[in-house]
């Protein structure tokens, strides 16, 4: 990446930008060595760099969330696959940070092996018949003595085929009430748990996706996250965290795609002149830079809000707007790169090869953008229904 391009995009604090650079440099040889290996090998390689370790609350600048975001951007800039970057951000922001908040210091210490890559978490919410409506959930956890008995099935779960533990949401009451759902931290080696179908994906294919099946699984009371009936609150917390910063996985791939496009357009001869001399090409490249700049500013602003201790319940609308904006900018940037590269964008052997499917997945992951727009409008005071 040219010095000029790097300087234009350095919108963060110096210590944050230095951390991005440091992890890019650390990750580049690791990414090359791990290329072609399976997901778990690539996961462990990133964990060995410290990407999964959460800085302690109150750590010196950059703050813990900003630090994790910069690490992920750095490894993406080093060339780590978008699917791997997505899996890392999903665990860090969608599970590790909210889980640390939910379980307290002692309980967190007992599961902190996830920070070393020795255990992998997954988020088990979606069901085949449920989609985005948590109150249609059929998975049940009935109280039994000092614990619970879990029955049901979860699907479309990132990392389910290889995960060691799952945050599982289940009904503990029958009515459509805010207190009808509970959340559990479930070791996936318990009797009665099996892994169902593993799905072949066209987007973010590096990380596997699958199902978890629960048949009379006995859970101790200590598996409950928070209190019985607090599942919706846990879900709101994990969801807000995800929407706020999960698109951090896209920053490295976006920067790499922009850099490749700029280099190619600057050198390619086209109609007797350099392709980059065209105003139309310049406009597309500038729009790519705008999309990336806007995305970086928004994501690091959200990280700063979280580092400042802003409760996630106060960030729901802002997190949704950030997720919508960054995901759509990711798609827009990729569309511009594809238009400029022409057929080369669809030939894997070329440096200009693009991956339109993975950016499109960002429009759906962590909540479909159309539904998020409805949620934002509702919070603005409109009487809109889903």
Please describe the structure with a list of short key phrases separated by commas or semicolons.
11 helices; 386 residues; alpha+beta
Please provide a brief summary of the model.
The chain is built from eleven helices and ten strands. The chain has helices spanning 3-9, 14-34, 39-48, 64-77, 82-110, 231-245, 251-267, 279-307, 316-341, 357-362, 369-379, and strands at residues 121-124, 140-144, 147-158, 165-171, 181-187, 193-199, 209-219, 224-225, 269-270, 273-274. A four-stranded mixed β-sheet has the order 1-4-5-8. Strands 2-3-7-6 form a four-stranded antiparallel β-sheet, with no helix packed on it.
Molecular structure report:
By secondary structure, this protein is α+β, with helices and mostly antiparallel strands. It is 48% helix and 15% strand. It is built from 11 helices and 10 strands. It has helices at residues 3-9, 14-34, 39-48, 64-77, 82-110, 231-245, 251-267, 279-307, 316-341, 357-362, 369-379; strands at 121-124, 140-144, 147-158, 165-171, 181-187, 193-199, 209-219, 224-225, 269-270, 273-274. Strand 9 (269-270) and strand 10 form a beta hairpin. The longest helix has 29 residues, at 82-110. The model has no long low-confidence stretch (mean pLDDT 92).
